[in-house]
Each structure stands twice: as C-alpha cells, then as structure tokens.
Amino acid sequence: MELLRFFTAGNVDDGKSTLIGRLLYDSNSISTDIIETLTKQSKVTGIDTEIDLALLTDGLRAEREQGITIDVAYKYFSTDKRKFIIADTPGHAQYTRNMFTGASNAELAIILVDARNGITDQTKRHSIIASILGIPHVLVCVNKMDLVNYNEALYEQIQADFSIFAKQLNLKKISFIPASALAGDNVVSSSENMIWYKGPSLLEFLEEVEIERNVAGTEARFQVQYVVRPQTDDLHDYRGYAGNILSGSLKIGDKIKVFPTDAITTITRIESNLVDVKEAFEGQPVIIHIQDDLDVSRGATFVRIHEEIISEREVKATICWMDNKAFVNGQKLLLQQNSFRTKAVIKDVQGKLNIHTNEHLESDGTINLNDFCKVLIKTADSVSYDAFQKNRKTGSFILINENTNNTVAAGIIENDVI
C-alpha cells in the first residue's frame, strides 16, 4: 500500500490541528478509548462542541494550556487506498525551524488559509519554505468557510490571490479546496453547503493525489551504518556492511564504486532480515557483502559505477539556523549526513533569504535563529552527495556543535548559490 507523507501549516488559529482531528475522526481512524479520553479533556477546555478535535495533535500539556501548537506533532492513519503520515507544524514565525524539520520529508504541503483573512505573510512564508524544500504538490485549504457563509466569490478571490503570489515560486503543482474543519465540510465528505464546489473532499484528494517518487531519487544509493565482523569460530571470515538502501535498488552482481575512496568492487551477497535476497530496494535494511577486501567504514557510500555522485570537501547549501545562539565565525561543527559524519566549518555566508518576501539579500556575515542562508561549508573529509532536488536522502544534512553536541542547523545541498 502506498504511503503519503504530508504536512500542514498556516497561521496560528487557522485550524490546522482541528482539520487533522476532523480528518481522523470522520474517517474512523481514532480508537474508542482515545475518543472517550478526548471527550473528558474537552470539557476542561470549555469548548462549545462535544469533542475538541485539536487535542488529537496538540499532544504537549503546554500547548493545550496555551491553545496553540508549538512543536511538530506526527500522526499516522490509513484508509483502504493509502497510508498516511501527517506532520502538524507550528504557525508562529519564531518556530520556523520546527516547520522546516516537519516539511523536509513531505511529498505534499497543506497550507491553511482562514477564509476571513485571506493570504497573509504567514501564508507566504510557509509557501516559500515549501518551494525551498521542493515539495512536489501544494494544497491550499481555505478553512473556516462556515464563518463567511460559504461565500464562493470570496473563495475564488483567495484562489486568485495565491496563484498570483505563487508565480514567483518554484511550486510544481497547486490545488485548492474550500472547507470547514470545525463543521466537517469537504474534509471527509463533500459539503452540502458548497454545492458550487465540484472538486474532491480533502480525504478523497489525499487518497487520489499522484505521489512523485523521484523525491528520494531513482539511482542506487547505500550508506554504511555498521561494519559487521562477528569474528566467531563459525563466522571467522564474515564481513558485511549494514545499512538502509537510501534510494533506488541494488542487486547481486552489481559493480559499485565505494566513496570516498573511489574503489570499485562487486556485490556478492545481500541479506535482509536474516534471509539472502537477490535484490534490495529503497528503505530496506540490508547487509551487503562485496567481492574485494576494501577499507570500508561507517558512512561510506555505495553507488553503481554508471550512476554518478558528487564527492567533495566543499558543499554549497541552504541552511536553516536552529540554535538560539547566533553563529560564530570559525565555529567548530560536525556535518552529519545520514550515518556519515565529518568535521566542518562554515567558510562563507554567501547570502540570506527573506523568508517572508522570497527576496535574496546580501550577507552581513551573521546567522541567527530561523535565518535561511546560502553558505559554503568546508569539511575535513569528502562528502558524497546529490543535489537535494535530485535526491533528498543524500542532499540533506544537519550541522552539530562539536562542543555541545546540539544540532544548530539543517541544510539542503543545491547546485547554485547566490
């Protein structure tokens, strides 16, 4: 069964958590005991309805007390047609780093717009982040239509305003749905209050939308997480390389190049869940055996010899700064890409992006919390990567403070910088 990962974003109080709650509730994806618990908790919040659907995703006590979502909440559900992973991301501008994290692996963005307010700065900010991350499909859900008497003209105006703004962004596909999460209009079932809308409900859209499969890349990529050397009497000569197939597939007999050494060898055996297989595919945990006795360690990347990958000690990237403390020039960092880790420094801050206007700005050399910057990173060891737009798995990374071990930034590798 296909899996669709999507995230929701919007202004505070646009109804993101309520929309997800309604989606899960009306699609019968919530167990009876959870419904009973939420019904009791809803009485404490003092809402007018029997059950506060937003509590399904607002899992932290502090969030519930404030009535806002301040972290990324993940929910999982499925229908007869598809499985889903939802990331409910925060609306506040100061939590941009959280949204960047929640959106990084999504194939679809649902951007909520309050029908009363139309397109806002937050709407633009969320759309720009979706564009930076190359999200294949954006759905603009115009929520709270019940509060504007299901006004068709108002919905069409919002649709036109967003389409004009989106022309400057690199968004591949854009769709629109008018809805009321609180009333349930066009969430799971078509709305009788908006007979003028002829499109699918939100759930129907999610079940039928085409999932672009090139977001992880189609070329074979495997990175070693652990070198398996039991060194027992029975397995004295056993040497295998454990990890997940990041993208594509690998099979016995494939000639591969091992980075960063550039050594060429052949796959002789593949194990998956203690069973030998002829071929392994994206997302599959495996142990790979190779023909030659090479110096292969954690973080090494296997690539078929006819499929090129870049391996360099300088990386051009866009980063989102996640540390409350500002970047310090010369700061000692670690670049972590899947299981690969190497020492790194930000050699040059080449530009900034105004996340509210999509304007490219000249760099003043500073990087602060939630800043999006174009940077040049120098690493101690060669990084084997693809551009993020080609392969998200090998084109993304995090930066770690070497002294505190805190994650200070997340980044995507691009072909071009400012």
Describe, in short, the structure shown.
By secondary structure, this protein is of the alpha+beta class. 17% of the residues lie in helices and 36% in strands. It contains 7 helices and 23 strands.
Topology:
Blueprint: E1 3-9, H1 16-26, H2 32-45, H3 61-66, E2 73-78, E3 83-88, H4 96-103, E4 108-114, H5 121-132, E5 137-143, H6 152-166, E6 173-178, H7 202-208, E7 221-223, E8 226-228, E9 240-247, E10 249-251, E11 255-259, E12 263-272, E13 275-277, E14 279-281, E15 285-290, E16 301-304, E17 310-321, E18 333-337, E19 340-354, E20 359-361, E21 372-385, E22 396-401, E23 407-413
Parallel strand pairs: 1-3, 1-4, 4-5, 5-6
Antiparallel strand pairs: 2-3, 7-9, 7-16, 8-9, 9-15, 10-14, 11-12, 11-16, 12-13, 12-15, 17-21, 17-23, 18-19, 18-22, 19-20, 19-21, 22-23
List keywords for this structure.
alpha+beta; 3 domains; globular; 7 helices; 6-stranded mixed β-sheet; Rossmann fold; Elongation Factor Tu (Ef-tu), domain 3; 6-stranded antiparallel β-barrel
Task: Give an overview in words.
With 418 residues, this protein is of the alpha+beta class. Helix content is 17%, strand content 36%. It has a 6-stranded mixed beta sheet with strand order 2-3-1-4-5-6, with helices on both faces. It is globular, with a radius of gyration of 24 Å. 41% of the residues are buried.
